[in-house]
Write a structure and sequence with these properties.
Elements (H helix, E strand, L loop, with lengths): L14 H10 L19 H7 L20 H12 L9 H16 L4 E10 L2 E12 L6 E7 L11 H19 L8 E7 L16 H13 L5 E8 L8 E3 L5 H13 L6 E5 L7 H5 L5 E5 L22 H19 L3
Parallel strand pairs: 3-4, 3-5, 5-8, 6-7
Antiparallel strand pairs: 1-2, 2-4
Helix pairs in contact: 3-5, 3-9, 5-9, 7-9
This protein binds zinc ion.
């Protein structure tokens, strides 16, 4: 997302670094365990960027208390992503993560579609891949959930919160929803977008949201787009002092529905009434095509997420309880949207 439109702290991922990272972080070396950062055999580059694992992760409440959504499992999915190191679009690490995610989703019994495409970027033409889980419904209509899973092309940047957290939430969401056997009215689709992040340091059109623009265009072409009742995007949802503000650019009735659902669940201190938006994110790709859309995001870089787009966005910043609150709120909001005509 675009909030700071660049910044002086970050360094553009160089070709030389990419080469080193290709050599230093081949699949299998770090991808085998969620605790990859602690592996003694790990290349120095990777242990430097993966950050120290937290001495003790904060436990989420038991899944029964959060609608079946297991915040600790979501946390483990964040740890797993971070273990691959930096994961910018087109990188070998991202390809490894894609394979992991597809295998994981299939293991939950999810039907998984992938869309491999490529796009011209400031770094040349890059391969990209969207991953889409489709859980069928009985009536025409789709509730779409989304996250991006690429990390920004910055030196030593592993993106635990951006976008490990929301991707962890959506993987756990898929486990819960694909495992539910009772029929549902509207289908629920879960989109994992590639290439949300701008390839350049600055966020300038059209160098961002490649994956979501691709999926929105594909769904328009297939005729699925008008069936989407609501699109719920999550991005940067794992911090320890979360405050999700009401994005003025998001669709008002959908913001109202989610924030009032959160309040009913006792989360009004997290889903706060203050306005505030990201100024650019994957929901724009759907808003521009008149799909009701909302972004759940904490981009308060002054206090909540000072590590945003810096090498400090590491696993120790992630709170399993926050992931559980977000997952629970989205699960209950889906039930509310299922009641709508
Ligand atoms: Zn970002």
């Amino acid at each position: 997302m675009s909030f700071l439109r660049g910044g002086s702290r970050a360094v553009i991922f160089s070709a030389a670094l990419l080469a080193g990272f290709t050599l230093g972080c081949k699949s299998g070396e770090t991808a085998g365990t969620a605790a990859g950062a602690a592996n003694p055999g790990q290349p120095p580059f990777m242990s430097a960027v993966a950050g120290n694992p937290p001495a003790q992760a904060t436990d989420a409440p038991p899944a029964e208390k959060t609608g079946g959504f297991d915040g600790n499992r979501a946390y483990e999915q964040v740890a797993k992503q971070v273990s691959y190191g930096p994961r910018p679009t087109g990188s070998p690490a991202l390809a490894e993560l894609q394979n992991y995610m597809i295998g994981e989703l299939k293991s939950y019994g999810c039907a998984v579609d992938t869309d491999s495409f490529s796009a011209d970027t400031p770094a040349g033409r890059l391969p990209m891949k969207n991953i889409l889980v489709k859980i069928p419904g009985e009536k025409p209509g789709i509730i779409l959930l989304g996250t991006h899973y690429d990390t920004k092309r910055l030196e030593n940047f592993v993106g635990a919160d951006d976008a490990g957290s929301s991707t962890g939430v959506m993987l756990e969401m898929a486990r819960v929803l694909c495992g539910q056997k009772q029929p549902r009215k509207y289908a629920v689709w879960i989109a994992f977008f590639d290439a949300e992040e701008a390839v350049n340091l600055e966020w300038q059109d059209p160098d961002h949201t490649y994956g979501s623009r691709q999926m929105a265009a594909q769904m328009a072409a297939s005729g699925d787009l008008p069936k989407v009742k609501a699109f719920i995007l999550a991005d940067i949802v794992g911090g320890k002092t979360p405050h999700f503000r009401r994005d003025p650019a998001s669709t008002k009735w959908l913001v109202d529905l989610i924030w009032s659902t959160a309040a009913k669940l006792g989360y009004s201190g997290v889903f706060v009434s203050t306005p505030g938006g990201p100024g650019g994110d994957d929901h724009d790709s759907f808003l521009q095509r008149n799909v009701p859309s909302v972004d759940i995001i904490d981009l308060d870089t002054a206090s909540d997420v000072p590590y945003w787009h810096t090498p400090q966005d590491t696993l120790d910043k992630i709170d399993a309880k926050t992931l559980a609150i977000v997952g629970h709120t989205i699960l209950e909001s889906i039930k509310e949207i299922q009641l709508k005509k």
